[in-house]
Amino acid sequence: RFRSVNAVTNRGDVTDCAVSPDGRLIAYIAGRGGKQTLRVRQVATGSDVEILPLQDAAMEFPSFTPDGNYIFYCKRKADAPNYRVLMSVPSLGGREQERGFDVDCRLAFSPDGKRACFIRNYPQSGYVSLMMLDVETGKEHEMAKIPGPGGPNGPPSWSPDGKHVAVSLLF
Predict the structure, then answer these.
(1) In this structure, what is the dihedral angle of CA atoms 70, 73, 79, 81, given to the nearest 10 degrees?
(2) Which of 48, 62, 75, 142 is the most exposed place for a label (fewest CB within 10 A)?
């Protein structure tokens, strides 16, 4: 039961956010005019740190790894604006690293953090795929092919025991 709702920031330019698994940190994407930054705020103290400086690439879908050590997110590059590149960065700052390509939703991590799943759209072929990513090796495999029209209505979700992945579908 919620007791109250509190604003965490009043910047007015926040476009997406994620809460760390332990609830101590909030990662958020902010910016205007085609430039965005990734920031982390410590909930208890209000300390706010710029994790990535302003960039020309549009960022979206931030998500913490289950241990809270990394933030995964997608961004679009100027040379491939129709595709999202999967990136990661340490939660408290560091060098960003490319982890994958053509990711169309927020990642859902397995409870142990070793795997993640996501949706990949194939609009020209009339289907979407539920993809599995090995976080350490970067290897992907298709878990399911979902014919259109319709498709997923949001990102996938892992069961707490790590045995099942759920996806809501539109028909």
Answers:
(1) 180
(2) 142
